[in-house]
Design brief:
mainly beta; four-stranded antiparallel beta sheet; 1 helix; about 5% helix; about 45% strand
Length: about 170
């Protein structure tokens, strides 16, 4: 993919889609959301300078069944997770996790620093105690878990070298 502003070639390292939107995160941690129009062409959604300036690590587009517009969940690279009995997200800014309601990427609908994530789980469901090591959050995914009768949205946060945390949202 060619960056239109710098004419440099950028690799896409992550993507997420929810009809008609596609989220792309590139190797320089920049991101863009594209929308498919009725002619089958992809157009970039306008975003704020703040959205374009942050170093995004991961993102996910998710739409609940009863929602009119999907949401974009974005995780940036501003902090580390202090993993221990209680996990806490240390960040230089409070905007390390942002949620946008499409098609508006100019102002987040929700901003947090993901403090106090529960400890990650092992195969047998017992929380690991990992001392006071620091680990980076590397991926976020929102999905429905359950069957056609009982389904709920969950946020899955992947922690570098430590597994993942599953949260009901």
């Amino acid at each position: 993919m060619i960056d239109e502003e710098t004419d440099e070639e950028r690799k896409i390292v992550a993507s997420s889609f929810c009809d008609p939107y596609i989220l792309l995160i590139r190797d320089d941690h920049s991101s863009m959301v594209l929308k498919l129009d009725c002619k089958g062409e992809l157009d970039e959604i306008e975003s704020s300078d703040t959205f374009r300036s942050l170093d995004w690590v991961s993102g996910c587009i998710y739409k609940q069944l009863d929602a009119q517009q999907p949401l974009v969940y974005m995780l940036n690279a501003k902090g580390t997770l202090n993993v221990g009995h209680y996990s806490t997200w240390s960040s230089t800014d409070i905007d390390s996790f942002q949620v946008y309601q499409l098609p508006n990427l100019n102002r987040p609908a929700y901003v947090t620093d993901l403090r106090n994530l529960p400890s990650n789980l092992t195969e047998n469901g017992v929380a690991k105690r990992l001392g006071s090591d620091q680990a980076a959050l590397v991926e976020v995914m929102i999905c429905d878990l359950g069957d056609s009768i009982d389904r709920s949205p969950y946020m899955i946060v992947s922690i570098k070298g430590c597994g993942f945390v599953l949260l009901l949202i």
